[in-house]
Amino acid sequence: MEKDLKGYLFYNEVEFPKTHNLAVLIGMCANINPDFLKYEKQCKYLTSFGVLPKYPNELQITDDDAKTAIRFAEEIKEFVVNIIQTL
């Protein structure tokens, strides 16, 4: 999903920082298309899933957390793909 957001920014010729922070990336995408703002909360939630698995001793993800993360990621990916296809 991070790559989808970065792909959208790249497609729109926007330079982006080296970051895994999805909230930062979605904010940059929203500067191009405000419709991205509807996924701001989901991106904040998902950001921890990109960092915590690298530190398994700190990882405490429930099945519900994983299902929610997958649903959010799929929704955002579908949104980005649809936006790019309509450009």
Rg calculated over all Cα atoms: 13 Å
Can you write the helix and strand succession as a string? HHHH
Count every beta strand, where a strand is a DSSP E run of 2 or more residues. 0
Give the N-terminus to C-terminus distance in angstroms. 19 Å
**In DSSP terms, counting alpha (H) and pi (I) runs of 4 or more, how many helices?**
4
Integer count of domains: 1
Unreliable stretches (pLDDT < 50, length at least 5) are: none
Taking all residues together, what is the mean pLDDT?
Answer: 90
Helix content: 55-70%
Strand content: under 5%
Describe this structure in words.
The chain is built from four helices and no strands. The two termini are about 20 Å apart. The chain is globular, with a radius of gyration of 13 Å. It has helices at about 1-10, 20-30, 40-50, 65-85. The chain has one domain (about 1-85). By secondary structure, it is mostly helical.
